[in-house]
Amino acid sequence: MRRLTLSLACAAGIVVLAASLGLLANAVSGAGVPLIAESASPGRTIELVEARRAHANGDATFIDARHRDDYRAGHIAGSLSTPLAERGAQLEDLRRELPRTRPLVVYCEAGECTSAMVLGAWLSSNGWRDVRVLSGGYPGWAAAGFPISRGEGP
Amino acid sequence: MTGGRGIRNWSTDRRIALVLRFAAGAVLVYASRDKLFDPQPFADAIDDYRVLPLALVNLSAIVVPWVELITGLCLIVGLWAPGAGLVTAALAAVYTGALTSALLRGLEIGCGCFAGKGEAPLSFTDLGLRIALFAAGLQIAAAARFVDWPLSTLNRSATRRRRATPTTPGA
What we know:
The structure holds 2 protein chains of 2 kinds.
Chain A: H1 2-28, E1 45-46, H2 48-57, E2 61-64, H3 68-73, E3 75-76, E4 80-81, H4 87-97, E5 104-107, H5 114-125, E6 131-134, H6 137-143, E7 148-149
Parallel strand pairs in A: 1-6, 2-4, 2-5, 5-6
Antiparallel strand pairs in A: 3-7
Chain B: H1 2-12, H2 14-32, H3 39-49, H4 54-77, H5 81-105, H6 124-143, H7 152-164
Helix pairs in contact in B: 2-4, 2-6, 3-4, 4-5, 5-6
């Protein structure tokens, strides 16, 4: 019993010492982080006009959830192709290219299409904090005359 | 009866504790090295598990690597080793729970065990290592001395063996 009490006291000492050093190192390190992380955005959809503004300012990355053939035929300029079925294989590439704090706008063939909803939820569950689905999808964007591209590349 | 006595002997054997102290200590120090002064990638890795509220993610990413480092050093130098063994077991229990939960949910995320980012997706090997670390921590907590510099256990064992060996006349 005495051994257990002494062990617990030592364990508490180690944790207190480590926590103090950790907080000190975080305060003096150039790569320190705030003690409380910023909240994720509660929004789930983004309207066309707001999305266009984010697109023009480079404030968000657009992700195309449709099939690759649809992407080749026409997509939002600068968007990345991540077909829903290939999302698992692309996770590491997305992690490398997109910081978790980068706002993402996901779209597909219609305003409420399932693939954008599912891909958006999957991106959120994998750590991206600001993921929204584009209202109106690609047809709405193209019909508004906003920038589009064709072919393999963004 | 013999099996039970064997397990009891194993769980309190100081030579086994010595080996486990070095092994677990090295794993913990190695695990902490990339996270100490750059907690953001580790915070992202913790957040990927979706088990902690966001308010606790950064604080965990700041404190846990230092707990790993101090615990690992205590195990290697043999200072407060039973306490360090308890901390090792507690850390490993938390990691085991988080990994199991993520594997059951089919999350395609990195382990976050040895570096905050760029790791392969988590696997049952990661889980096995955490379970082994948990067992090692408990053994150390049960068997190690509170102040036991690395070679003193071996020195004591060697001295005991020399005393027990009958000396040959004329030798």
